[in-house]
C-alpha cells in the first residue's frame, strides 16, 4: 500500500537525490519500507565449520509504463525508480524528461510504475520486436533499442594513464555489497579519477540503467565522463553508454566482438581487463597519454 504521506516523501527524495533536477510537476511516490540488499545466512566451510555470512538479495520488479506492464527485472532493489526510468529511456520507450509525471514504487507488489504525458501509442509495436541477449538480470531488448544510433556524436576524450591508475585504485573503495556478499556487478560514472556515482545490482545492465536514469533526470552531460563496469563489454553495454553520451568505457572484464565493432563505429574508447596496473585498450589508444613508466614494474 502507498503511504499516506507519499507526497512529502516524494518531495524529500526529489530534493535529496536529484538537487539539479529542473523544477516541474514531477514526483516520486514510494512506500516507506526499504528493502534489504543482503541477508544474514549460515554456511558451512570446507572444514565443516558453521559460519555467519551474507548473501545478496534478488527480487522481481515489474516495470509499468502508464500502467502497461513492460518487463520484470530481477534486481537488488536499491534504486528502483532510477532503474525503471533508465530502462525505459535506454529501450526507447520514453525520451522527454519534461513529460514525466511520476514514478510510483510499491514493494508490496514489487512494481515500479512510470507515468508520463509522452505519446506511447506505438507501445505495442515496440514490444513485439524482441531480441534475446546475453544481459544478466534482463536478457531482452526491443526494436526501439537500436534507434537513433547514427545520430550519436561523441567527443574525442583525452585520458592520462596515471589518471586511469588512480581511478582504478579509487574504485576499490566501492563494491560494498560485493565485498559483503558477492554475486553482484558494479557500475560507476566517473570524472577523471573521481567516482561521481556507483551502483551495484545482480545484473550489470540493471546497474547501468540505474545510472542512466539518474543522469537523465538530472540532465547531466556525459562528454567529460568515464563509465566503469565490472561486467563484460557487450553490444548492449556499448549502446547504453553511447546513449548516455559517455566516450570512455572501462571494464575489469573483457569485450565481445560486436561490442568492439559498435565502439569503433560510435567512437567509444574501450579499455578492458583493467585491474591494478594492467589494462588493454581495444579501441582509442590514441586518446590515452602513456605517462607512466611501466618497465619499473617488471
Structural features, described:
With 298 residues, this protein is an alpha/beta fold. Helix content is 27%, strand content 31%. The protein has eight helices and 17 strands. The chain has helices spanning 6-17, 80-90, 123-127, 161-171, 176-181, 204-218, 235-243, 257-266, and strands at residues 27-30, 38-44, 50-56, 59-65, 68-75, 100-106, 111-116, 130-132, 140-142, 159-160, 185-191, 194-201, 226-229, 248-251, 269-275, 278-283, 288-289. Helix 8 (257-266) links the parallel strand 14 (248-251) and strand 15 (269-275). The chain is globular and about 60 Å long. The N and C termini lie far apart (61 Å). Mean pLDDT is 84; it is low at 1-23 and 134-138. GO terms for molecular function: sulfur carrier activity; sulfurtransferase activity.
Amino acid at each position: 500500500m502507498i503511504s499516506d504521506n507519499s507526497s512529502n516523501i516524494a518531495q524529500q527524495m526529489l530534493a535529496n537525490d536529484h538537487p539539479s533536477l529542473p523544477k516541474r510537476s514531477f514526483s516520486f511516490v514510494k512506500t516507506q519500507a526499504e528493502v534489504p540488499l543482503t541477508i544474514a545466512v549460515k554456511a558451512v566451510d570446507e572444514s565443516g565449520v558453521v559460519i555467519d555470512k551474507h548473501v545478496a538479495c534478488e527480487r522481481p520488479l515489474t516495470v509499468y509504463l502508464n500502467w502497461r506492464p513492460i518487463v520484470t527485472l530481477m534486481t537488488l532493489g536499491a534504486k528502483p525508480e532510477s532503474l525503471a526510468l533508465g530502462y525505459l529511456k535506454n529501450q526507447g520507450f520514453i525520451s522527454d524528461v519534461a513529460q514525466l509525471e511520476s514514478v510510483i514504487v510499491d514493494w508490496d507488489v514489487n512494481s515500479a510504475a512510470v507515468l508520463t504525458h509522452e505519446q506511447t501509442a506505438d507501445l505495442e509495436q515496440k514490444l513485439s520486436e524482441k531480441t534475446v541477449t546475453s544481459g544478466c538480470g534482463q536478457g531482452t531488448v526491443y526494436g526501439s533499442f537500436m534507434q537513433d544510433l547514427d545520430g550519436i556524436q561523441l567527443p574525442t576524450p583525452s585520458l592520462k594513464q596515471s589518471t586511469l591508475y588512480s581511478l582504478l585504485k579509487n574504485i576499490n573503495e566501492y563494491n560494498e555489497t560485493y565485498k559483503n556478499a558477492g554475486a553482484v556487478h558494479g557500475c560507476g560514472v566517473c570524472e577523471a579519477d573521481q567516482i561521481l556515482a556507483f551502483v551495484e545490482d545482480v545484473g550489470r545492465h540493471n546497474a547501468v540503467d540505474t545510472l542512466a536514469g539518474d543522469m537523465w533526470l538530472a540532465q547531466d552531460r556525459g562528454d567529460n565522463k568515464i563509465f566503469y563496469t565490472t561486467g563484460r563489454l557487450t553490444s548492449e553495454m556499448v549502446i547504453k553508454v553511447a546513449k548516455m553520451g559517455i566516450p570512455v568505457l572501462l571494464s575489469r572484464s573483457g569485450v565481445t566482438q560486436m561490442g568492439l565493432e559498435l565502439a569503433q563505429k560510435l567512437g567509444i574508447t574501450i579499455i578492458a581487463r583493467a585491474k591494478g596496473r594492467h589494462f588493454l585498450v581495444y579501441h582509442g589508444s590514441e586518446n590515452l597519454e602513456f605517462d607512466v613508466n611501466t618497465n619499473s614494474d617488471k
